[in-house]
Amino acid sequence: MPVKQRRKLVDSRDDRLSLAGQCRLLNLHRSMYYYKPKGISAEDLHIMQVMDRMYIEDPTRGSRRFRRDLALKDIRVSREKVRRLMGIMCLKTIYPRPRTTISDPAAYKYPYLLRGLHVSRINQVWQIDISYVPMQRGFMYLVAIIDVQSRYLVGWSVSNTMDASWVVDCLKATVQTHGTPQIINSDQGSQFTGHEYIEYIKSLKTVKISMDGKGRATDNAYIERFFRSIKYEKLYLHEPKDGKELFELCKTYISFYNDQRGHSSIGDVPPTRVYRTAA
Fold it and tell me: pTM for the full model?
């Protein structure tokens, strides 16, 4: 069990067992229980907001180009800091290079199943991914799941952490609402290569796991395109002040995206019309 989850199990109000005793049972050093993570500075939050817009404009930037282009905006940072912020933001540069997506090197990476595949029906392929979302004071993450055939957003959720359990809970709710797809495609991030995510999909029996190749963010292009749309058309225009406002903005935009926004790739009609007609 990760340290973060073990810390949550410690009950400081338990009169029967001391904190030291609880930490011993959980194999958790007391210093880890009392540790308070240092928040991200206002300066770093500003840099991350700038980097997010730069990434949406040009996702081929690696850490070298980010550092150079930030300097052109009078933001001078080291390449190491750029790499760290890219990791926090889940930025996946599109070209063969060492990945910025944080993955578990010991985890098995599933093959990419969409190459050459003809997608002809709804719930044949879903794509899932996580995106960093800047706010006025801080940031959160948005996980979204899109049906490739119809471009319909079948599921989404926002969180202030990237816990695997959050991703799995979103996927479970989506499956309960829309049933199971034939294939679910993701990148090789730790949330998607970890035990909790893999075991849940395996429990669905008929669902196949697909993962992007190294350095190929375009393998998950449909969900990446959605993130670009929601940021340019909603979140950048109405920068949310907190998580509640972010949720409402996402809810409003996704309703518009599904029910009203036409897509040229599906005959200039909204995704709902394709998804509901075929369902």
Answer: 0.77
Dump strand ranges (E) for the chain: 125-135, 138-147, 152-159, 183-186, 208-211
Which residues are within 8 A (CB) of 190 and not within 5 positions of it... i.e. 6 or more apart? Answer: 102, 103, 104, 107, 164
Class of domain 125-278: alpha beta
The encoded tokens of residue 263 equal: 């897509």
State in Å, rounded, how far the first CA of the chain is from the last one: 39
Distances (CA, A) of 99 to 102, 122, 185, 232: 8, 31, 17, 25
- 186 and 211 Cβ atoms separated by less than 8 Å: yes
pLDDT in tens for each of the 279 residues of the chain? 666 677 778 887 787 888 788 888 888 776 666 656 567 888 999 999 999 999 988 888 889 999 999 999 999 999 999 999 998 898 887 764 434 344 555 456 789 999 889 999 999 999 999 999 999 888 999 999 999 999 999 999 999 888 889 999 999 999 999 999 999 999 888 899 989 999 999 999 999 999 987 655 556 789 999 999 999 999 999 989 999 999 999 999 999 999 999 988 899 999 999 998 876
User: What residue type is assigned to position 203 of the chain?
Assistant: S
- C-alpha triplet 87, 93, 99: angle, nearest 5°: 55
Pairing between β-strand 208-211 and β-strand 183-186 as defined by DSSP bridges: parallel
